[in-house]
Amino acid sequence: MSIFGTENEFDYGVHCNSVVHESKPADEEFNITPFPGRQNGYFSGGDKVLNNPPSHFYSPPESKTLLFETHHVFKTHADDVFMVEGNLIFQTSFSYEQNISSGSSFISSSSNSSNRRTLDFHFRGFWSRITGKLCMVGKSYAYSKEGKLLHLAAVLKINNLKNSSTIRTLVTGTMDSLNSVDDPNYFERISLLMFPQVNYTYTMVSKQFSEGCSRGTNVQPELSLRLLRTGTICDMFLGGGNAFELEYTGSCKSSKSCYPFGDSIGYLPSVMSLSMIQCSNDRLSLRFLIEFRNNSYRGYYGSPNISTSLIGEGSWDEKKNRLHIVACRIYDASSSLEKSHKNNIFVGYFS
């Protein structure tokens, strides 16, 4: 299979057969996909082809957002190997300021969507349901800083793409240029990180509920979280991130003893944001990306610093008006997103 005519350097087999061997597709389209129709994620790298111009108010975020759109999945003549077609869309944006209102724990924000930049790759390749690996070849177009049209060709390799997932599952991968280093169409490696959404099982938060959630700080009823009679906990977190100012007890003198990341980032965070990733079918549980920041700046499209974030799942306790969250730390995201993995479990309670 070649995406660029018969040029061998862009053949699937040359770049991907060692990952998932190419197989002849059948006519029947399959209803099981490695991703939902639209799968969100994050990436690092790609500054050359994404071409964000520097300015006095903009600095590139440490991680940026992506979207994988699955268009078609076909059975093949090989068992548990499927041909996949889709688009991988990279998004970056300028930063803007979120203002913390006096006396309020929430952060309000404003932004300009015209500052958004995208790069759209069309990919085709094969996914192994057994190994969880997906390999694809694709192409896109972009402009250089000098305004010249670039013809981009790439190979996409994704790992850990299984039929089911839990809080400890991370989908990671890389996208590499198929052009030589001295070619003007060449770009450096882009690393990818995604939180899988297909057949997710809430394992940790259900365990905490079965063991009882007796810990936490008592909050006055008029100050606690409350749901509308017709609403659910998922409704509360729809529409983007919800950010809260952090208050520390008098005994907290350093980030080492008061913060999940210790002294590794060099500051004690002042803001925590909860961004919903997914809601359960019964709308009683949900998944979060929990980010800790030291200021009120954040990119328009929610480009968090993965190195200072937790991935968690939560459930609402109606009797106590309390949200129970169990979260994992994401390690090694600062060096390269495709090397990221989870470890350490943290339990939190929000009233």
Describe the overall structure.
With 351 residues, the chain is mostly beta strands. It folds into two domains: 8-194, Lipocalin, CATH 2.40.128; 204-350, no CATH class. It is built from five helices and 18 strands. The chain has helices spanning 12-16, 47-50, 204-211, 233-236, 255-258; strands at residues 25-29, 38-44, 64-76, 81-92, 95-100, 107-109, 117-128, 134-143, 149-159, 171-177, 190-194, 242-245, 271-279, 285-293, 297-299, 309-317, 322-331, 341-350. An eight-stranded antiparallel barrel has the order 2-3-4-7-8-9-10-11. Strands 12-13-14-16-17-18 form a six-stranded antiparallel beta sheet, with helices on one face. Strands 6-5-15 form a three-stranded antiparallel beta sheet, with no helix packed on it. A hairpin with a 5-residue loop joins strand 7 and strand 8 (134-143).
Give the tags.
globular, Lipocalin, mainly beta, 7% helix
Summarize the structure.
Pfam families: DUF2921_N. The protein is mostly beta strands and 351 residues long.
CATH class of the largest domain: Mainly Beta
Alpha-carbon distance between the two ends:
55 Å
Describe the global form. Answer: globular
The second-level CATH architecture of the largest domain is Beta Barrel
What is the tally of beta strands? 18
Structural class, please? mainly beta
The fraction of residues assigned to DSSP E strands is: 35-45%
Main beta sheet: strand number and arrangement? 8 strands, antiparallel, barrel
Tell me the strand order in the biggest sheet: 2-3-4-7-8-9-10-11
